[in-house]
UniProtKB/TrEMBL annotation:
Enzyme class: ligase
Name of the protein this chain belongs to: formate--tetrahydrofolate ligase
Gene3D superfamilies per UniProt: Formyltetrahydrofolate synthetase, domain 3
Enzyme Commission code: 6.3.4.3
BP terms from Gene Ontology: one-carbon metabolic process
An MF annotation (GO) of this entry: ATP binding
Assigned keywords, A-Z: ATP-binding, Ligase, Nucleotide-binding, One-carbon metabolism
UniProt source species: Vibrio alginolyticus
Recorded metabolic or biological pathway in which this protein acts: One-carbon metabolism; tetrahydrofolate interconversion
Amino acid sequence: VDACEKTTNFRPLYQKHQPLQEKLMSVCEAGYGATNVEMSELATQQLAHFEKLGFNELAVCIAKTPLSITTDSSVKGAPVGFTVPIRELRLCAGAGFVYALSGSVMTMPGLPDKPAFMNLDLDEDGNIIGLS
């Protein structure tokens, strides 16, 4: 409770009214130390679509590797001056944010690329195979 009553120097990285791309750049620059955001063609199209639908004022979040401040899990320490590649954007309108996917990050950590049910089948007697 005492910590909640202390004054802080907290300042948001961006303002609500800023365009989504500026918000992403602010997070990458101030939060990660990047100097550039490179949007894929798909992400650029999605960005335009979300803004056309009026979702400009939503918060932004970036999904990237947890192993580095960059999007390259092999880079350690606190590098600066790198580019953050954004491959896709996803809209969570009900929750009130847009999140950017960067690198090869999976949005459900710990799950395989190919779900186990893909290996299931039935033999000619109707028994399930592929469970082991």
